[in-house]
Specification:
Blueprint: H1 2-31, H2 37-68, H3 72-97
Length: 99
């Protein structure tokens, strides 16, 4: 079980980010407007935290790859974390540009 969590950690961060940003924008749309600056900054802060977590997982996976060689679980973890980092940045882009 620990290996599966290690391998899918980045993808779990991506799913958590997707759900979190959706919830933030939904609540913002009910309370104020979805493009309100405070809610946008809350979404951006949440995205930054998720990106930092994905980058930390990517760093840990690459460090393990260098230390142990070419382990399959470390390669999958690095790939999933890299995909998560790119996806979080892509999903945060509308918040950054204001659309």
């Amino acid at each position: 079980m620990k290996t599966w969590i290690w391998m899918t950690g980045g993808l779990i961060v991506w799913a958590f980010h997707f759900i979190g940003v959706y919830l933030i924008s939904s609540v913002a749309d009910v309370v104020a407007t979805a493009d309100d600056v405070r809610w946008r900054m809350a979404g951006l802060a949440f995205s930054g935290g998720c990106a930092l977590l994905a980058a930390t997982l990517l760093w840990a996976a690459v460090t393990q790859l260098r230390r142990r060689g070419s382990g399959f679980s470390d390669q999958v973890s690095a790939f999933g974390s890299a995909v998560s980092l790119i996806a979080v940045a892509w999903q945060a882009l509308p918040t950054v540009i204001g659309h």
